Amino acid sequence: MNATVFSWLFVAFLVAMTLTRLWLSSRQIRHVAQHRAAVPEQFAQTIPLTSHQKAADYTLERTRFGLIDIVFGAALTIGFTLLGGLSLLLNLATQLLPDSPLLRQLLIIVLFGLVATVVEWPFDWYRQFTIEAKHGFNRMSKGLFISDQLKGLALGAAIGLPLIAAIIWIMQNAPLWWFWAWVLWVSFSLLMMIIGPSIIIPLFNKLEPLPDGALKERVQALMKRCNFEASGLYIMDGSKRSSHGNAFFAGMGKARRIVLFDTIVSQLNEPEIEAVLAHELGHFKRKHIIKRIVPSLLLVLPAFWLIDYLMHQTWFFQGLGVTVPLTGKEHQGIALVLFMLAFPVFSFFIEPLSGIFSRKHEFEADEFAAQHSNATDLVNALVKLYKDNASTLTPDPIHSAFYDSHPPASIRIGRLNTLAAK
């Protein structure tokens, strides 16, 4: 392929992606605004108009700000590629480390990651301390925000740099490098799933064992009914950052933990918490976790193979604004960065496929919860969470189908009510 042709193809896909994202957001804005004045009939008895309008306003403000983020993201991609941003980073790395190909390639990735992260901080700051604060959700101090960002960078360096360095070394030295890099990636990913709950999460949040009492007894009885074992039941101090509630399972095998946000414990009663956990257990028992993890790990293998092909094509580098020699150990790191920038552009229009499977899994987990707890309790819990988290009840159908991992509230509640009636 000709480099000029590839450049124009890249620009065409980037423009199409950006315009589509802007169109979807504009649909969401119009649809939510048009339905702001009245609570959907299905929720008229459970959600006040004021709460419905608060959710609409929150969604509208987040989506409108997202328009700026979409345009900025596209501009940043062009800046890194066709406007020469990566070439500048490449020249800087060459000047700093002229005699070390491995460290030079690693430095290129570090510089790219640092720039991409830092330029997003103002957007994250505005979301947290303007939008979230305005709508009553922010509980994070500015000091904690800065601490989280610095911890994230330090953790990324401590964990990510050795992994990336190993991958680049394999790329530079091993035959069939894409297979061995994939083996390393899979091993690393599985290790993170095992150690994450006990090592990574406590770096950012405090986990305390769920105290003895009626709630713990309910959860243990639910686990016994579902033949599920976990290494512990914990409450996490999510309230120090946000008033949004959540519950999740973390870890694999014997390292599995059930984690409740302290906010959800205060928002829901015991039967409702049991129903929410039954839904999460449904994901495990229906093997949704495996169905999501295995394909994602398998897809990395052809991705590495594609990188191997592309990093031997002059048009791939020149078409994205970079000129490097394609022999020796001078281009592996830059190839990884270019792939990370280009792949989301070309794969954007197939992203909704993952949402289809995710929404299907949510329905299946709801059915499991209805069988092993009480469907009405899950309905009540979801309604409270929609209300307290200001989740819009009236998303645009096309926007929801494209982006959402969970079914719209009306459809999900409707199915659960049918299950409750049975």
Average pLDDT, to the nearest integer?
Answer: 90
What is the straight-line distance between the termini? 60 Å
Inertia-based shape: globular
Cα radius of gyration in angstroms = 24 Å
**Estimated share of beta-strand residues:** under 5%
Q: Which structural class do you get from the secondary structure elements?
A: mainly alpha
Instruction: Work out the helix count.
Output: 17
Q: How much helix, percentage-wise, in residues?
A: over 70%
Low-confidence stretches: none
How many beta-strand runs?
4
Strand order of the largest sheet: 1-2-4-3
Largest sheet: 4 strands, mixed
* Helix and strand element order: HHHHHHHEHEEEHHHHHHHHH
Oligomer: single chain
Quick gist of this model?
It contains 17 helices and four strands. It is mostly helical.
How would you characterize this protein structure?
This protein is mostly helical and 422 residues long. Helix content is 72%, strand content 4%. Helix 1 packs antiparallel against helix 2. The chain is globular. 28% of the residues are buried.
Q: Which short descriptors sum up this protein?
A:
422 residues; mainly alpha; four-stranded mixed sheet; 17 helices; globular
Write the layout of secondary structure elements.
Blueprint: H1 3-34, H2 49-80, H3 85-96, H4 101-118, H5 121-134, H6 142-173, H7 177-204, E1 207-209, H8 214-225, E2 232-236, E3 247-250, E4 257-261, H9 262-267, H10 270-285, H11 288-310, H12 314-319, H13 332-347, H14 352-372, H15 375-388, H16 397-403, H17 409-421
Parallel strand pairs: 2-4
Antiparallel strand pairs: 1-2, 3-4
